[in-house]
TrEMBL record:
Protein name per Swiss-Prot or TrEMBL: Putative glutathione S-transferase
Entry keyword annotation includes Transferase: yes
CDD domains: GST_C_Omega_like
Active site per database record: 59, 190
InterPro entries: Glutathione-S-Trfase_C-like, Glutathione-S-Trfase_C_sf, Glutathione_S-Trfase, Glutathione_S-Trfase_N, GST_Omega-like_C, GST_Omega/GSH, Thioredoxin-like_sf
All copies of domain GST C-terminal, residue ranges: 167-291
Record key words, sorted: Transferase
PANTHER family: GLUTATHIONE S-TRANSFERASE OMEGA-LIKE 1-RELATED, GLUTATHIONYL-HYDROQUINONE REDUCTASE
UniProt keyword Ribonucleoprotein, yes or no: no
Recorded GO CC terms: cytoplasm
Pfam families (alphabetical): GST_C_2, GST_N_2
Residues that, per the record, bind glutathione: 96, 124-127
Length: 326
């Protein structure tokens, strides 16, 4: 832990001092509530209407869960509480707030439920967070593994003909690709945006674009990352791509090129966006507000007008692409 203590208080309030290394790298905190779902002792029982998922529509880690719940039909069994995309700066509390007290939990701030769960909780109060309504406590905020739980542990409540987001024969390959997508792309944009040294920023930037170049090649011949079937990996990649031009390109200085300058990644992202589970959970207004109006570097709170979001509905012509591995 000593290597990730920084001598400076970060100017960016989305980063805790514990998340900055001495050489200016952003090192994300680990999740505090990681009890898995399942039917064994000590696991979180699978039960319709027992849990509430607290999200920000702006947050990529929360967005993943919303897409998966819809694709699997679990949105009928787990309710959703949505925070305001801009964290308040004018109150004692600086964490995610609800516009009105949450209709089910009655809380005004996300920290209310984290601290009711553990008064000694240390770290950022983050979404996604799953609350057990029978105890009114946070039981899981394991943003890296939640999607896997929805797919595997919640199978008995999936809708008929739900997609298999983690097919058995592909699991090792999906895990490997997810690792790359997480380190270089999902978290890569944050490593670039939250770096406090030029070197750390440039390393993250180079790694991000080198991986996007590889994914661009891969998607030249495959409709999705693993052929014609949407998997966990596609959801992970989509949530960063859909935020790229509206937020990360300028907000996080990821500006070698825009998403729309990568023909295959851009067609792929539109292909996903034009499907209900993706479109209905993509809220560009929340994304823009969060990334541009939360930042302390925007004192006049001017919201960038572009880019042209109508392009997301333009034809993608990817239905005919060959299968993965052919
Ligand atoms: N739980 C993970 C990832 C989730 C996460 O970082 N969520 C962001 C939104 S995208 C959040 O809730 N941030 C609250 C904060 O920075 O105070 C973490 O602790 O890093």
């Amino acid at each position: 832990m000593s290597s990730i203590i920084n001598q400076h208080e970060p100017l960016n309030k989305s980063v805790s001092p514990l998340e900055l290394s001495q050489d200016g790298r952003f090192v994300r905190q680990t999740s505090r509530f990681i009890t898995p779902f399942g039917d064994q002792a000590g696991q979180l029982p699978i039960e319709s209407n027992r849990y509430r998922l607290l999200v920000s529509y702006a947050c990529p880690w929360a967005h993943r869960q919303l897409i998966a719940l819809k694709l699997l039909g679990l949105d009928k069994h787990i309710s959703i509480g949505v925070v305001n995309p801009v964290r308040p700066t004018n109150t004692d509390k600086k964490d995610w707030a609800f516009d009105e007290p949450d209709s089910v939990l009655g809380i005004r701030y996300l920290s209310d439920i984290y601290l009711a769960t553990d008064p000694d909780y240390i770290g950022r109060f983050t979404v996604p967070a799953v609350v057990d309504l029978s105890t009114k406590k946070v039981v899981n905020n394991d943003f890296l593994n939640l999607l896997r739980h929805w797919q595997l542990a919640w199978k008995s409540l999936h809708k008929a003909n739900a997609s298999d987001l983690y097919p058995e024969p592909l699991r090792t390959q999906i895990d490997e690709l997810n690792e790359l997508i997480f380190n270089d792309v999902n978290n890569g944009v944050y490593k670039a945006g939250f770096a406090t040294s030029q070197t750390a920023y440039e390393q993250a930037y180079d790694q991000l674009f080198s991986t996007l170049d590889k994914l661009e090649q891969r998607l030249a011949h495959s409709r999705y990352l693993f052929g014609d079937q949407i998997t966990d990996s596609d959801i992970r990649l989509y949530v960063t791509l859909v935020r790229f031009d509206v937020a990360y390109y300028n907000g996080f200085k990821c500006n070698r090129q825009r998403l729309i300058d990568f023909p295959n990644l851009w067609g792929y992202a539109r292909d996903l966006y034009q499907q209900d589970a993706f479109k209905q959970t993509t809220h560009f207004d929340h994304i823009k507000a969060h990334y541009h109006l939360s930042a302390t570097i925007n004192p006049y709170q001017i919201l960038p007008k572009g880019p042209d979001l109508s392009l997301w509905d333009s034809p993608h012509h990817r239905e005919q692409l060959a299968q993965y591995g052919e």
